[in-house]
Amino acid sequence: MWINHHWICYLIFALCYLNNATFGAILDSRCYLEGGGSAESFLATEDLAVGSIIGKLRINGDPNAETGDITLSLREKNAPVEIHAGTKELALSVELDKEGVRGPSSIYVNVICIRRHSTDPSFVIPVNVRVTDVNDNAPQWIGTPYTLTLSEVTVPGTRILQGARAEDADQPGPFSTVEYQVLPGPYSEYVQFLNPLEGTLVLRKALDYEQLQNFTVKLRAQDQGTPARHSDTLLRVVITDADDQNPKFQRESYTAEIPVDGRPGELRMRPEPLKAVDQDEGICAPIQYTIVQSQDAKYFRIHPHNGAISLLTPIGYADVANGATLVVKATQIDNPDRYALTTVQLTRPGSHSDLSTLAFVQKRFVMRIREDTAVGNRILALPTNKPGKHLKYTIPDPVNSQFFTVGSLGELVLAKPLDYEKMTKHEFQVQATDGMTNSTAELTLDVIDVNDWEPRFRETHYEFMVPKSSLQSRVDSFEGVLIGKVEAADGDRNDKLELSLRGQHAGLFEIDTTGNIYMRPEQLQSLNESTVHLIAIATDTGVPPRSTSVPVSVTMEGLTLAQSGWNSNMLGMFGMIMGLFLMIIVALSCYIVRSRKQGKSASSGLGLGRNRVHSQAHSSVSSANLVTHEKLAGNGNGNGASVTSGGVSVLHMKHGGNITMANPMNNGLHHVASGASSSMALGSSAALLERERERDRERQRESYAATVRSIVSRASANGQLFEEDEIEHDSLQTENNNRKGAATGAASGGVTTITTTSANAGSNLLSATDAMGSSENNLTVYF
């Protein structure tokens, strides 16, 4: 009891000390953050000027140099921030930059707070300054300036520049999202960006080398900040000449006089020598001259390179009395489809050719013309026998008169764009009149197809589903499985389409010329996806070839189910394994629990363990006998002692040996048991005597329990306890001897013999017999 009070005093003293210490700490809140917390955080924009205040530290205390009670400083040397002396203000000392180029992108420092007039250790407060982004960087063009070389026959809508790009160094978001545009200005109508967010330029307007050889436009890249930042660059486009122009004579017509005597020789052309040039200045193809066959052409020859006309054979005056008209053709050597015509009017001195009947130099004109010929080009000359005269030409056909017109000098001019897909040939008549006579010529113009249409698919995206049955029925067959069809067409009449597939798994599929897509089921082993993404490409056979593409998605239901089944089987096997494992665990758990229960039962039956009392039956003993047993046990010689007083109850104590205390419920128990049968015959007098004895035994039990508790208390105070292994051994021996004694007692008239064997000596120290009603009337106490 005194020990318990002693420890209670110590506990109260410790609690008071802790309470005083805590109360004192709470009173001194210097260097703690206001509102709690262990760190300080601030936000600062990257454009914050050097020297600006980032924020005020929320630290309890006054940092004033004279009257303050705390001192603040930074642990880091050369830190990007500083603390103003005598204040809690945190100021910026270097330039910030979220991109980390011109300065730090974040700041982490430690503030040291010292309590003045105190021996307390200093406090370290982490301070984190997060730098937020501002729109301080303009987009920068990559790989500028840009220069393009385009042919004049480039079709409007063609992508002429891909990959034009500008980068913004700001953090991802609106400050770094770049938009592209063509600034208004000269020639800005020729190009435009396909998408403001994509650096792809397309041609808007047709080019003409003969009118424009090059031009420059200004491009702008601008972010989405407020205000927005931008940068500009230049795009220079160089136009190359294409063979889209026919040769041209320097004069509409020429004249020459036939010698009076008709002698062979070179004729003198007026007003200048005959000459034609290629109008495609960038190409300037060489020209070859010929005379178109006519009735009078047999007398003359033209030089193929310089165009000089000569008289071959002498002619009489009667042969060309009224003069002659020659049609000269200038043809490009590299392209026979490009040519020009002119007339040479031959006269004899003194003749009156102006009075002759008007006639075209030939009755039929045939020509080939490209469908992309520009409107306004002169495509053919219709010479007559009256060159240089302003004649009137008409085209009676109402349809062709919309496509063509004829000038006063007989030049045929294109008035409306041609389209090979709508009309491949134009046949019509041209009538000419000089007011007195008329003449008619027939024209046949064959339109040459130009690849001006890109192939087009019917759908913008194709999706196909391959059923499970199609795959399972042909999994071992080499016959392809038809999974779908894509349809494509080309606006050019004579172009044919070639279809192909591209993609990671394109080798597993085939496509024919009609657009049918096939798949080989035997190749599915190399496929680990249920949905395959392909690109179908259609390319035409035009010159130059054009192509277009469309995405194709193929979902294989069979493959998905197979994979799902495989996964289900694996999951099933895994589930079986886990179930078996759980069953094993449950079985082991049950076995362990059962084993523990059996161990507890055995321990309870054997009286194992410390500090427990096992009572097998009610016993009665006098207090004097217990004291006597205790004294005798205390006088043991170290080899173990046993005291017997009638019946035996064993009390093991470690005091130089084992002490055995006999059950004091001995006297009269056997006699009562043996006399009970005889007294039952005596009637009611015996019953009264039995009740009296029962009350006496109850009093003895109470006295015995009090004595046991006293012995237990003293033994605990002196530490006289057996080790677990000794108790277990003695208990087992005692239990075995009890059983043997019970048997012997039963055989000898109910006498119970209990033998306790010392763990040290190993000999029998006590054998006691007592005439008790049962061998279970023993009380064993272990410590």
UniProtKB/TrEMBL annotation:
Segments forming domain Cadherin: 46-141, 142-249, 250-360, 361-457
Domain of life: Eukaryota
Organism of origin: Drosophila rhopaloa (Fruit fly)
Principal subcellular localisation of the protein: membrane
UniProt-listed SMART domains: CA
GO molecular function, one term: calcium ion binding
Signal peptide bounds: 1-24
Protein keywords: Calcium, Glycoprotein, Membrane, Repeat, Signal, Transmembrane, Transmembrane helix
UniProt-annotated location(s): Membrane
Region (Disordered), start-end ranges: 601-621
Gene name tied to this protein: LOC108045668
Entry keyword annotation includes Signal: yes
Membrane topology note: Single-pass membrane protein
Membrane-spanning residues: 570-593
A Pfam cross-reference name: Cadherin
Name this protein carries in UniProt: Protocadherin gamma-B4 isoform X2
Cross-referenced CDD domains: Cadherin_repeat
InterPro entries associated with the record: Cadherin-like_dom, Cadherin-like_sf, Cadherin_CS, Protocadherin/Cadherin-CA
